Amino acid sequence: MSEWWTYTLRDFLLFSPRTYYRLFEIYNAAIWPAQIVAFGLGLTILALLRRATATRARLIAAILAGCWLWVAIAFHATRYATINTAGVYFAWGFGLEAALLIWTGVVRGRLAFERPADLASHAGLWIFLFALAIEPLVGPVLGREWRQVEIFGVAPDPTAVATLGILLLVTGRGRRMLMIIPAIWCAITGATLLAMKAPDAWIPPLAALLAVWLTVRQWRAARRIGRVESSEDARAASP
Amino acid sequence: MPQSRTLSRRTFLASLAAAGASSVLRPASAAAHPVAAAAAPGPFLTRPIPSTGEKLPLVGLGSWITFNVGDDMAARDSCAEVLRAFFQEGGRLIDSSPMYGSSQEVIGYGIHKLNNPPQLFSADKVWISSGARGPEQVEESRRHWGVAHFDLLQVHNLMSWEEHLPKLFAMKAAGRLRYVGVTTSDGRRHDDMERIMRSQPVDFVQFSYNVLDREVEERLLPLARDRRIAVICNRPLRRGDLIRRVERSPLPAWAAEIDCGNWAQILLKFIVSHPAVSCAIPATSRADHVRENVGASYGRLPDEAMRRRIVAHVEKL
Predict the structure, then answer these.
(1) In the prediction, which pLDDT does B43 show?
(2) What is the predicted ipTM?
């Protein structure tokens, strides 16, 4: 792309806000009552989180993977791709995240959940609750139609934000890799909404920034503890 | 879009066309349409394509964003109504691109619904980095439109133009295409555009030109005139930003002197009054706006003094 510095976000917007939100309206009508099932799956995740055994953790990962796969096929590939040539690539990205969740969380059982104890896990729970119950209300509160509502499990934005929240509750390795695609999606959708001058454009990028910052903060704290423990071990081992 | 654009064009008077544009009788379809007939009593202005003399109305129809509505059938029908109004007003040239999402399919849906209006002048683009895959993309575009062949094919944003232009010239020589062109937008790659205009036998060029973006007046427009190349102007209303800029101000009294009943017509007449310009291609998703836009093809055009007055007035707003 020559003279790339002359391009703005708006230059990449292929559709009008009206077309974008109508897409959700038509999509919601076509998949009804999948929204209720998806919301029920969100509540199920919440219930499973209360006492997340290894089996329950696998179940949470499976539910999330199912949601990502649904959005990949039913939304991105089938609907969004009709107005955005990048929709097919988004579908592959969401499909990849579903595969990673299955591989990491279900097959290898690498996702372990603990009751919220630190800032990151508390924030993760609230981010998930926000994506499940509050984020769908933002559009109608801003004046968009109820029929255009975006719901966790079937719409990409609340699904990505909720996943980031759940991953903040995870202990153990593997979660950082699972955060990459949801965080990238939050940046892409934030840019799209910003180009459309949507007042709620800041929500997904802010959720992603918060999740990344909390993860880095948690990781640094763990490294500090690791260093202290190893130096104490060294002191104890010395004659 | 703002409601102030919907002012009546009752002030239209029968008048002479400005230099370079020729007036013809009102299109029969427009006269048959009561709204159109009431809206535009002036002479209908066209300008010849320099390479053939074929006459084109001064206002065409763009499809960037506005026609990319996907599978939304209500929106597709609404776009078909925009096309219906466009043809009823006398419009001909519709411009699209494979880059515009579903726009080509939506245009195809609309013109099929309108029984393939014979006055259609189909202008599309090739937009792919691989020259070898250009013909395949052109064929796919043609299927989307549902036309036997395109009237005009342009290399979109000069992408791989060295590879695409020979293929387009070959299509033209074989009778499968009538005109060949190249496009750019928003002031980009004007040096390359100038080089192509000087070295290649293109029939059309397309670039951005409006009352605030006038860089092309320096080199490209005079060169197009010298080289006898038709000019299509995109971004004529800066994607609606110009309308939003001026709509708060009342229509100047001098608008009547150039037979303009609303701001859109003033802004469009500024563009098409340049003698090197063949047509402007505003995009819209509303039938009432397309009627207003094509209304700029009627009546008197601004002379040089009036053009300067329009610039000065808009720059102050």
Answers:
(1) 83
(2) 0.85
